[in-house]
Each structure stands twice: as structure tokens, then as C-alpha cells.
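Minutes, project check-in
Item: structure for the 166-residue chain
Input as provided by the requester:
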Amino acid sequence: VGRAANARKGVANALKGIATGAVTVGSAGMGTALTAGFSRLNAIDTASAKLRGLGNDAKSVDAIMANATASVKAQLGLGEAATVAASAVAAGIKPGEQLETMLKGVANVAAATGGTMEETGPVFNKVAATGKASTDHINQLSHRGLPIWPALADTLGLTPAAVREM
């Protein structure tokens, strides 16, 4: 009888240890998820504040945030899209179809190069603000792994070297 009681205690202690470990791992995972969620909310709030600071009314901010939401792919976050959207509007991109198209382009380039919208967006915003794409802007995308020089060459019917000279 003593051995059976000891065996039950041993199994009970082992199960208790496993359960405690599972709760600890689960709690850590929930903590990470909550932290990421609060970071996302903070990014969205910051972008909204930036948009209001740029003189956009509540209706415009809602429309811009809707453009940001529509542009996001599953692997990219709304917080990033909102941040890039705020900067894009500041650079002169009009809310609506123009902003949504630009954000989708940023999201696609970020996904294709393994980067983030926040890393890629400033390149697009610089082009929007100046109204032209310089060699520096194109090189920034190329250095991220985007085959932009060959794509431009194919589109223009030129060699990559001729496109660089343009």
C-alpha cells in the first residue's frame, strides 16, 4: 500500500509540475501578445495624433485610417500602416484611392523584401514629397533586395545602365 501511495504522489507531483510549466508558458505568451497589442494601439494613436496635428479633422483621420486598414496584408500590422499613412499625408498624398494605392505599394515592397512598412514607407514618402524618384531613392529599394533597376529597364525598354543614367 505504501508504494502505491508514493507512486500516486509522484504522478500527482509530476502533473502539478507540468501544469505549472504550461501556465507559465501560457502566461508569457499572453504577456507578449498583450505587449504587442498595446504597441499597436500606441502606434495607431500616435499616427492619429500626427494626422490631427497636421490639420486633419476627425472625419479625415477616420478616412485615412480606413485607407491604412485596407492596405495591410496579414503579415503586416495596422500600426505600421497607420504610421506610414500619417507620413504619406504629410508628404502630400491625398487620402482616399491615392493613399490606399501608395500604402499597398509600400506593403507589397515590404513583404517582397522581408522588411517592414516603417522601413520602406519613408522612401515612398520622400518621392511623394519631392515629386521625383532619384537614384538614391531607387537604390534604397534595390539595396533591400527589390529588383527595381531591371524592372524599370524592362518597362522603359532600356538597359539598366541607361535607366541609371536617366
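Outcome recorded: The chain is about 80% helix and 0% strand.
No further action items on this chain.
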